[in-house]
Specification:
407 residues; 7 strands; five-stranded mixed beta sheet; alpha/beta
């Protein structure tokens, strides 16, 4: 946008070229991450409004041209999205994306609003660079509060740490350069400016290093696999048919696709096309196989500890249109706003599990399952004794882990 060549025709050609390039890149963003292109579109909208109010029509034309090219580039995405929405269970799948319902202003917006206000006061020149940076700050705040218009949003915090926070850092760098150049004319602050920049870089890198080290020290034990578990994964990878299905606990199921070529009976529901009802039934089948008691199941779905390894089921099973379980005004967890189990849903699942009778013939007839994995996590469920099951035969054992094959 900042082309100021002396040749008007050359300047026009460059403007068109930059608009085409930015439009294509915008369109490609549709195939990456929803928070990227929504952030860009929101910033473009605010920028267009500002330029319209300033009667700078040429810039408005550039933005419109970029937007049109971006839309054309994104057409295959929208065709695919419409095909997805035509699926009978598309709404069920969308509900797995941590939909947040409510029309409450996100409290984290206030620091961003304060930053936008301070940026407006401190940035001296009202040039294109200022309006460009400031528009995307406002656009990010609008994205963060999309629920005020739509009544719902999807994992709104992603707009903060994936796009808005990095943009704030860029904004600070631009603001610092503006302050040095325009607020301290005649004062030699080049050395100081460089020193401050180096200091900021060191502080940011140091913060990243120490935070990651602290996280690693805290979480390392939880991400360390027992040698017997690794041996069992190696056996699965070497001795089973590719894509064969393994039934296990949810924690084990999260690891099997990482270390083996097997599929799992209870997949990660947030990214699976499996309907909600089937996901519920598979959960109950897995728990019944390992003889989990009614009390175990009640604690399984009623306590917040499930957040760590079946939070995907919170998003699948416990947000049931038209009445949303998750309301930004009512639900607050220790780690911020997040979906919780409603009492009605807890009671329904507890009752269903109590009445559920495992019929392995029926299960095998409807769902594919080739192996049952019984390890450390599975033995915590209850009095597990799979050796007595006539529909299983031991295929592997190393003391801590036993793998059975369906017969």
């Amino acid at each position: 946008m900042g082309v100021n060549d002396s040749d008007p025709s050359q300047s026009l050609r460059k403007r068109i070229l930059y608009s085409i390039i930015s439009g294509v890149l915008l369109g490609l963003c549709f195939y990456t991450y929803i928070y990227f292109w929504t952030f860009i579109l929101a910033g473009m909208f605010v920028l267009t409004v500002i330029f319209l109010l300033r009667h700078e029509v040429d810039y408005v034309k550039q933005i419109i041209l970029s937007g049109l090219i971006g839309f054309v580039t994104s057409i295959p995405f929208w065709l695919n999205f419409m095909a997805f929405r035509a699926l009978p269970y598309s709404q069920d799948i969308l509900a797995k994306s941590s939909v947040e319902y409510g029309r409450t202003l996100t409290i984290l917006s206030f620091p961003y609003l304060l930053f936008a206000f301070c940026y407006y006061l401190l940035y001296k020149k009202r040039n294109v660079s200022f309006y460009f940076i400031w528009s995307f700050i406002i656009g990010g705040i609008l994205c963060r509060n999309l629920q005020l218009v739509t009544g719902y949003t999807v994992q709104s915090e992603h707009w903060s740490y994936n796009v808005l926070d990095p943009w704030i850092l860029i904004s600070l760098a631009v603001l610092w350069a503006d302050i040095i150049q325009n607020r301290f004319k005649g004062v030699r602050l080049v050395g100081l400016s460089r020193g401050v920049c180096v200091l900021l870089i060191v502080l940011i890198l140091s913060f990243g290093f120490f935070s990651q080290k602290g996280f690693a020290d805290l979480r390392y034990p939880h991400y360390t696999l027992d040698s017997s578990m690794m041996d069992s994964f190696n056996w699965l990878d070497d001795n089973t048919q590719r894509d064969s299905v393994v039934l296990s606990d949810y924690e084990t199921a999260a690891l099997i696709p990482v270390y083996t070529h097997n599929n799992v009976f209870t997949p990660y529901a947030l990214v699976t096309l499996m309907p909600t009802g089937e996901m519920e039934e598979r959960m109950m089948i897995a728990l019944k196989v390992f003889n989990a008691s009614q009390e175990y199941f009640r604690n399984y779905v009623n306590t917040t500890r499930v957040y760590y390894y079946i939070n995907h089921l919170e998003n699948v099973t416990y947000i049931t249109p038209p009445t949303a379980i998750f309301d930004l005004k009512q639900v607050k967890g220790k780690r911020g706003w997040r979906p919780m189990f409603s009492e009605e849903t807890q009671n329904r699942l507890n009752e269903r599990y109590g009445d559920y009778v495992l019929n392995i013939t029926d299960v095998v007839g409807r769902y594919r399952v080739d192996y049952v994995y019984c390890g450390i996590c599975e033995k915590k469920m209850g009095d597990v004794n799979l050796d007595e099951c006539d529909w299983l035969k031991e295929a592997y054992s190393n003391g801590n882990v036993t793998i059975y094959q369906i017969v």
